[in-house]
Amino acid sequence: MRGPARRLLIVCYFYPPLAGGGVHRVLGFTRYLPLHGWSCTVVCAGMEDYWVTDPSLLERVPPATEVVRVEGGSALSLWLRWRRQSGRRSGREFARWRALGDWWLLPDSYAGWARRARAAARRRLQAGGFDALLSSSPPDSVHMAALDLRRRFGIPWVADFRDPWVGLHLRRPVTAWHRAAQAGLERRVLEGADLILAASRTHAASLAARPDRVCAGKVEHLPNGYEPKTETPGDPASAPAHPDKFLIAYTGMLSQMPDTEVFLEALHELLARRPEARRRVRARLAGPFDSGYADRAVALGLTGIVEFSGPLPHREARALQRRADLLLLWKPRDCPSMVPGKLYEYLDAGRPLGALLGTGEEASELVRQGGGTVIDPGDRGALAALIERHYLAWKEGERQGASPPAWLASNTRERLAARLAELLERLKGERA
């Protein structure tokens, strides 16, 4: 172990106490990079600039980490904060706001915040003492800020993509002009970065194979990773809270996810087939959600069976994963290269796993390697059959489990930070 000798400036939007899947990757960097000689300064959003927060995550921020908060957020994030109701929002209202942003704000609705963050980062870089710069998206606006900083200060720059460029790959551009503009911005970032990190192997491969070769020789796959569980098998946190109930659990974002409704309909189908299960089956969906899904659960007669709990503190979400009799996973359908960060947590939990994912996706293969079952998105009947199979096994007294795959241990955030430190050292050596 080396004492901190170098300093990294990180530009990102999401950092504690803001919550959500995107927070944990950068938090892991700042926790473990100092063990490998890199201290961190983080330029991020204000403490209330998102509709989902988890103050308990602040306990994980190392005291030595310098945090520069740029207050104000994006117009969309401020509206969501104003409308915040325990992690519940109107999907229709959100879609209208996002559509306006897609028309008028490039690359995304965080562009105004990114300009202010760029100014804050510029002031910090002018003070000196930095050896490298890292920007982590989404939102992709952070990369535009970092591109300007790279040009101005000549500092080595790492562009970290937790997801592919959102305006091209997760959302459909509203016009051909918007598509060309988003593609041009993405190209400028890829061309200007000294090193490009991708959280999925599929995305890394697609970047490296671009015909324009703007990424040639500078793409690395660095998975999302996870913090391993520390409880022993007999720990109360891993035991069912209600042993007489079969618990289905999902943790994470439930907004703009059509397979949430597929699950509700599959559960309704199962309960119609096995009415006695209404007394025994419970589902807890823990994460930010659209109110329409909760309304659909009521319409299907699932009141008292399905709970939309809203976002939980991260430690409680991990405990829920370990208590579940069946974990469920789904994600946006239009981004086959995305590997959700919670997948690694699910595998670490050692519980049965069912995933609604496309055949041939990287995430599908990881689920299978962990002993889970993959179902085509939208396949209500197959999902109902999966739930029924695990429910009947539980009813017979068989609380099933799954062993984490052998490769999972190499994906802890501590090991991934060590890998990032190696890449930063190599990058600095190349620029020396």
Structural class by SSE content? alpha/beta
Low-confidence stretches: 232-236
Helix content: 40-55%
In the CATH scheme, what's the topology name of the largest domain?
Answer: Rossmann fold
Compute the average pLDDT: 90
The total domain count is 2
Termini separation: 23 Å
Order of helices and strands: EHEEHEHHEHEHHEHEEHEEHEHEHEHEHH
Cα-atom radius of gyration: 22 Å
Strand portion: 15-25%
The CATH superfamily of the largest domain is known as: Glycogen Phosphorylase B
Largest sheet: 7 strands, parallel
Shape: globular
Q: What would you say the CATH architecture of the largest domain is?
A: 3-Layer(aba) Sandwich
What's the multimeric state?
Answer: single chain
Query: For this structure, what is the CATH class of the largest domain?
Result: Alpha Beta
Pfam family, one: Glyco_transf_4
InterPro entries: Glyco_trans_4-like_N
Protein name: Glycosyltransferase family 4 protein
Keywords: Glycosyltransferase, Transferase
